[in-house]
Amino acid sequence: MIGVVPERPYVVASAAQSVDGYLDDRAEARLVLSGEADLDRVDGVRAGCDAILVGAHTVRRDDPRLLVRSPERRQARVAAGLPPNPAKVVLTRSGDLDPGAAFFTAGSAARLVYAAGGSAEELRTRLGSAATVVDVGDDPGDGLADLPAVLADLHRRGVRRLLVEGGRRVLTGFLTAGLVDEFHLVVAPFFVGDPHAPRLVGPGDFPHGADDRMRLVEVRQVGDVVLARYLLAAADDYWLRQAIDLSRACPPTESAYAVGAVVVDDTGHEIATGYSRETGPREHAEEVALSRVDPADPRLASATMYSSLEPCSARASHPVPCADLIIRAGIRRVVLAWREPPLFVDCHGVERLRDAGVEVVERPELAGPAREVNAHLFD
Ligand SMILES: NC(=O)c1ccc[n+]([C@@H]2O[C@H](COP(=O)([O-])OP(=O)(O)OC[C@H]3O[C@@H](n4cnc5c(N)ncnc54)[C@H](OP(=O)(O)O)[C@@H]3O)[C@@H](O)[C@H]2O)c1
């Protein structure tokens, strides 16, 4: 069985830039890009994550505390059974980190240092109990810590939602590796105009070029800055893998497919899940998931239905096929892995959805694992 479970957290990258695309200037003092209102917004985003990750140069230059500022948000985390602050994570190859930095001294959050290039041992000695130093192995290409391995290790430690706060090299690394699900970009209303100041990202091969645009899901004015929130292709892959993984839980039968479905809002939060025959012998995955959502839930209008198999357009056991249930629920976007083969019925779910104006995204790269769960039907 091919492993398809996303063994990484959902990754939100966040940055603020000047209108001419700079993250900072070269002055001694830290450049203030956001106002109070936006800092409070970021505080809310931090509070909703399990960990916050930065590059070592940001720790050296900005000395950030990386804590949730609002006492109410910290209390809400504690009430939900979480530590008051997300864990702090830093990446380094040089090992040049000062144990007196606020990263290590401010707050009681767990602190993780991912050390590449043979710096782990010296750092362990020097940082002592101030942090857990992890060596996940170096990427053979650039000798930096292998980012998928960093994410897999964070996942093993229970991190399900990670906030990547920069700086330039870290953002470039995560974005070019296709490891960002959601990108929050703030534009501040001024110019830096210094070609030697750090830009938002460096050169690289980004998964989203002009022909493969990110999905803009929100634009918001926050004080005098503008927030643009984008969803990236990685997010579709992330949730579709969850749907395929769910399909493995279906009670087996020779007369129907095993399918998993996940309904996700546009902030990367799960609304509901379902799998075939989960609550009754004839139920379909999408039907189970939708039965768990309040039809008046305002998130549905911008939600996506992820299904390991094409939603059905006709079924003997139920008057309303899943494609119609999705349309009736007001869901405007469906992502699926595998078109239904004509084994039991002739399915036209994709056409039915598209005729109703629903955007349908097919990810044939994941059809193999979705089919593999159903291999017994084709023996
Ligand atoms: N406006 C914003 O939203 C924002 C947010 C954050 C930062 N910033 C600004 O961004 C600038 C810093 O950006 P930057 O590109 O110079 O530095 P950075 O991305 O913060 O840190 C780069 C450093 O992180 C370490 N690193 C990155 N990827 C790694 C990997 N895969 N494995 C191991 N180590 C890795 C290396 O540390 P070593 O050098 O120790 O080997 C590398 O030199 C600062 O001016 C800061 O103020 C702006």
Automatic annotation (TrEMBL):
Keywords from the named record: NADP, Oxidoreductase
Statement: the UniProt record of this protein carries the keyword NADP: yes
Enzyme Commission (EC) number: 3.5.4.26
One Gene Ontology MF term: diaminohydroxyphosphoribosylaminopyrimidine deaminase activity
Top EC class, one word: hydrolase
Domain CMP/dCMP-type deaminase positions: 234-360
Catalyzed reactions per annotation: 2,5-diamino-6-hydroxy-4-(5-phosphoribosylamino)-pyrimidine + H2O + H(+) = 5-amino-6-(5-phospho-D-ribosylamino)uracil + NH4(+); 5-amino-6-(5-phospho-D-ribitylamino)uracil + NADP(+) = 5-amino-6-(5-phospho-D-ribosylamino)uracil + NADPH + H(+)
InterPro entries, alphabetized: CMP_dCMP_dom, Cytidine_deaminase-like, DHFR-like_dom_sf, RibDG_C, Riboflavin_Biosynth_HTPR
Pfam families the UniProt entry points to: dCMP_cyt_deam_1, RibD_C
A single GO BP: riboflavin biosynthetic process
CDD domains linked: Riboflavin_deaminase-reductase
Pathway membership, UniProt: Cofactor biosynthesis; riboflavin biosynthesis; 5-amino-6-(D-ribitylamino)uracil from GTP: step 2/4
Role description: Converts 2,5-diamino-6-(ribosylamino)-4(3h)-pyrimidinone 5'-phosphate into 5-amino-6-(ribosylamino)-2,4(1h,3h)-pyrimidinedione 5'-phosphate.
Family, similarity comment: In the C-terminal section; belongs to the HTP reductase family.
Protein name, entry field: Riboflavin biosynthesis protein RibD
Origin species: Actinopolymorpha singaporensis
Source organism phylogeny: Bacteria, Bacillati, Actinomycetota, Actinomycetes, Propionibacteriales
